[in-house]
Every structure is written in C-alpha cells, then in structure tokens.
Amino acid sequence: MPLNQLTSVLNDNLKNLKETGRAKGAEKVIVRIKRAEGENGPRYFLEGFDDKPFIKMNSNSYLGLTLRDDMIAAEENGAKEFGVGPGAVRFISGTHLAHIDLEKKLAAFHGREAAMIFSSAYVTSMGVIVPLTTPETVLISDELNHNCIINATRLSRPAEKSIYKHNDMPDLEAKIRENLGKGKRALIITDGIFSMRGDNAPLNKLVEICRKYDSSFPEGIISIVDDSHGVGAFGKTGRGTEEFVSTKVDVLIGTLGKAFGVNGGYVVSSASVINYLRETAPMYIYSNPITVSEARAAHKALEILESPEGGKLLAHLAEMTAKFRNGLRTLGYETLDGAHPVVPLLVRDTQKTADLVRHLTENGVLATGLNYPVVPKGDEEIRFQVCADHTVADIDYVLKTLENYRR
Known about the structure:
single chain, Aspartate Aminotransferase, domain 1, four-stranded mixed beta sheet, globular
C-alpha cells in the first residue's frame, strides 16, 4: 500500500502527542438530551456511559438558547422555505435574504455601519486579519490570543510581528514604539474574553493607546478584537467586552456559535472595511455561507437577547456565575476574579487535574481539564462554563461534587 510509510510516521507522531499530553483523546459522543425538568436543567447522555445523565459544564452556549422551541421553529421554518443548504458561495448564488437580514441585525446590534457573516468564528478571524495585512503591516498581538489569531498571523506574513505580555498595556505601548517606522499600518489584535481564563482585555485602555500612536503610522493603527466568548454573554445587554469597558474598537469579530447557540461567525466595522473584506477575504469568497435556517435561528437569538426576556437570561447567567465562583472559593479552591461565565479552577498540577476531571465524570459532570503543554506548567486548570440554562440545583450539585473530592 502506498500509505505504509506515511502511516508509520503518523503513528509515531500520534504516539508522541499522547506521551507529551498534547493529544485531545477520544471525543465524547452525545446520543440523547433530556430537556430541563423540575429544578434540573438539561441532562446529556453519552455513548458508553449507559443511561447516566450528565450536567454540561463545558458548553459555550452561554444563553442556553439551543433547546428552545422558538429557536428550533425558526431554524425549521428556514429549512422548509429554502432547503437545508445554500447551494453555492455568496457571490455566485448562495446569498439569501436571511443572510442580508442577519447582517443588518448584527450591524445594528453592535452600532456599526455594516456586518459580514462567515462559516465560523475561526474562519472569520482568518478572513479579517489576512486581507488587512500587507507586506508593510506591523502586527502586534496579546500573548494569550486564540489559536485562530496565531494561525492568521502566520498566514498573513506581516512585515513585523510583536507579542505583548497578556493584558499588559505598558508593554503594548512599548511594542508599538519599537515598531515605529517599520510599517505603514499597524494591527493591534486581542481576544475580548480569553477563553482559557475568562478574563477580559482592557479594551478602553487599548483603544486610547491606539489613538495616541495612530498618526505615527501613515495608514494608521487598527484595533481588531475577537470577542467570540464575550458577545451575548458579557456586558449589561450582552454586547460583550466593548460594552463592559465602555469603548468601541475598529473591527469586532463575533460568533453565532456560542452565546447565540447556532453556528457561524461574523465581523462588524465601517462600510468601507466590510466592502473591502467581501472582495478580498478568500475564506468568505470561496466558502459556502451558513444555511438559511441557521441565519434565521441566529436572527431569533438576537431578538430574544434584545427583549426583556434577554435581560432576565443575562441576569440569571450572572447570578449562577457568581454563585459558582463564590462556591469554589468557599470550598478552598483557587479561581480568578471576573464576571464572565468562564470560571477556571486552578489546580496547578497535571496529575491532580486529570484525577479531578475523572471524579467529575464519574459523578455526572462534564468539564474540561487543561494540562501542560496546552497551558504552562503550574497553570493547569479545569475550565468550567456556566450557562443560563443551569439551575440553582445544578450549580449546587457540581459544588457538592467538588466538595466530596476535597474530602
């Protein structure tokens, strides 16, 4: 067989991933979901675990919209009217009215001139950063930025690349000064919410620094923020990190696949920026858009969020997040300050992290363990994610499970 030699090399690589702790391992398969009932939120059933119910504490669906009847109806109606797929990329014949309506809704939601949807948030970051980077662009990025930003930076090949210390604004300013005269344009790129820690970027300070040095670059400094974990789950009305710190960046990237509970990514900015990206982003031009049914469901999610009910969902999410974070501290666990529903439990030991994840799984709790080399040695953690469909009873059960482990 012609693959024999390659297979041997790939198997050696896979073995190395496992031995160094970098392999993600077998994926858990959800085979059934039981909707919220009584004092309990949704329960999930996994392949290989018989009829054992699990509480999902590792979901990005922060508003808990995925199982709502009105969301499902919006998606079903879209499929009935236009079928299950777009049938083409946008510029050929894949653009539907639902896509245009959603983009208008997203632009208005974020107070921007225009919006543009992509097939995923990961692709959105790639499709924004690469076209905006020229051979005379300086790119400056937070050291804890998401993998999509890291890979976009590699693909875009800027004239200069600098990494500043996590959320360290004096270091960001120093990196800007170091790159004066090295490019016509500077892109300052950061996550809004950092997915491993749940902390937020100080965007207000970042924007001030960008304005301070904007005239030092012939084509200016452009602030780009991927707030996929922030939009819909953070800020008084769910408008993300920008709302939380009262500022606006030049280019904002978001997702439809986390708090909004659907699928896809998007970017909002000025009309000129969006028009340019439509003509230059290969990830947009040569890839099918999300389906009409997904666009309809995402539109419904925005309607819910902007309604009085959305305010109640955000309030409940904040209450459950605070309850869980405070509960961890009461039990003697270490966590980080913050208001975002990503709540890290810092274990700071690889074996103990694995043991605790095993204990949680045995007791019907799904949570994500992060060990070296995914995180630096000494930063090993379990990432919990609170959602609006978690109940008081759910949070109490998870905390009781963690209390039993300490005993």
